[in-house]
Amino acid sequence: MAVPNDDLTPEQQKAIAELLRRVAPVADELGHRFADAGHELALVGGPVRDALLRRPGNDLDLTTDARPERILEIVDGWADAVWTIGIEFGTVGLRKGNYQVEITTYRSESYDPKSRKPEVLYGTSLHDDLARRDFAVNAMAARLPGHGFVDPFGGLSDLRRKLLRTPARPQDSFTDDPLRMMRAARFASQLGFAVDPAAVAAMRDMAARIEIVSAERVRDELSKLLCGSDPRHGLALLVGTGLAAHMLPELPKLRLEIDEHHRHKDVYEHSLIVLEQAIAQEEDGPDLVLRLAALLHDIGKPKTRSFEDGGRVTFHHHEVVGAQMTKVRLTALRYPKDIVSDVSRLVELHLRFHGYGTGEWTDSAVRRYVRDAGDLLPRLHKLTRADCTTRNKRKAANLARTYDDLERRIARLSAEEELSKIRPELDGNEIQAVLGIKPGPAVGKAYKFLLDLRLDQGPIGKEAATAELLRWAREQGMDRSS
Ligand code: ATP
Ligand code: MG
Question: Where are the transmembrane segments (predicted)?
Answer without folding.
Answer: none
